[in-house]
Amino acid sequence: MKPKDLQQVLEADLQHVWHPITQHRILAKQPPKVIVGAHGSTVVDAEGREYLDGMAGLWCVNVGYGRREIAEAVYRQLLELPYYPHTQANVPAATLADRLTELVGGEPRHTYFVNSGTEANEAAFKLVRQYHRQVHPHEPRFKIIGRHYAYHGTSLATLAAGAIPERKSKYEPLGDGFLHVPPVYCHRCPFGLTYPSCALACAKQFEYAIKAEGAETVAAVVIEPIQSALGVLVPPEEYLGEVSAACRRHGVLLILDEVINGFGRTGRWFAYQHYGVTPDLLCLAKGLTSGYQPIGAVMATSRVFDGFLGEVEENRQAAQINTWGGHAAACAAALANLEIMEREQLPARAAETGAYLLEGLRRLLSLPVVGDVRGKGLLLAVELVEDRATRAPLGGARMAAVVRGCLERGVIVGRSSGAGGGFGNCITLAPPLVLTRGEADRIVETLHTVLSGGTA
Length: 456
Ligand SMILES: Cc1ncc(COP(=O)(O)O)c(C=O)c1O
Hints:
Layout: H1 3-16, H2 24-29, E1 35-39, E2 42-45, E3 50-53, H3 56-59, H4 68-80, H5 91-103, E4 110-114, H6 117-135, E5 143-147, H7 156-161, H8 165-168, E6 178-181, H9 201-213, E7 218-223, H10 239-249, E8 253-257, E9 281-284, E10 296-300, H11 302-306, H12 328-343, H13 346-362, E11 370-376, E12 379-387, E13 392-393, H14 396-408, E14 411-412, E15 414-415, E16 426-429, H15 437-452
Parallel strand pairs: 3-14, 5-6, 5-7, 7-8, 8-9
Antiparallel strand pairs: 1-2, 2-3, 4-10, 9-10, 11-12, 12-13, 12-16, 15-16
């Protein structure tokens, strides 16, 4: 881009665009990067500078950038049929729903399409409430139990289900009927315990809350198998099984939010597949199209879906419609994306490169500022501390300096949320699943330089 054109774009941007979670006073002094191109795991700005994208956009460009075959699949579909409301059927959406059922191994098997992760979770909350109202009309099951510091989306109900103070406090009051239990955060156990002698006190909180609320009032539990935004909280092996069993004992549905975890990122198609459970509802977005088109989806088991069957006059059908739900071109993008993931065995590659990257990151533990390193597949975090002994989280200004230091060296890393509650001290990594070992080395070397070079 010519410098004059770039200046015009920046001027238009600063005058007229309102950016998310960004202080515009800072933008005036440090203008945003104008990203104009990308290939593989690299994005390119308007001045021709390349950055290794350690966050795959917003944890989503799983197959990497520049995939012609996805663009061509979308192009062909737009010419044939761009869109038609999903009260009727279309070929890519039906094929995609079938493919998703294969990927989860048969259940959940009914897919409701939406346009984002927020909408997937929001739809799941509505569907579980409607399910219980229709199937257990004498039980007022409407409460949804999530975890503190979780992130499930931007709408009022998904903000209520999550609990990140800085994202929600100014929008309160939010939706009613959402409760929270502590996260599974072994490095900073909310109970001050240590695994395994803790006997999974955090997992037991779900049953405690269900009983305390009255099981007959609880509709669902919503969790990510690996809680991402707070700093990639990989649970002990038995955690998800315990939560799932508690739900089953009390007739509570289990909603798994795999908006980030899904589509190969953790080394399997879906993260829950590591832990031997089956969700009642599975919420998907991001990696479903690797960001080539906006999409989201909720998959429900036959048991849940059957609760919506009846005569038309009974009015049991799902009582919502999204204009773009089942968008033919978005579904075509998803199909092409999944084909690439399968052909190139990207879930297995994420497991392999992820293990390699984790091993490299573990070497950073020799630096006093690194308190913990964890991850599964290509979903990882490096937790930074002021002091190893006390585990005091590294402060906000120093965290920002680490992120900036990496960026200046051409590597994009993320930062965890939860700063409002004294967290926000993890560097997060969720690169494209096509990341090479050489690129993994570069991430480790860059972090090593920045963390040992006085920036932190
Ligand atoms: C776990 C999780 N769920 C839901 C969402 C919301 O997805 P979207 O931004 O597509 O609405 C996000 C977004 O980052 C997420 O991380």
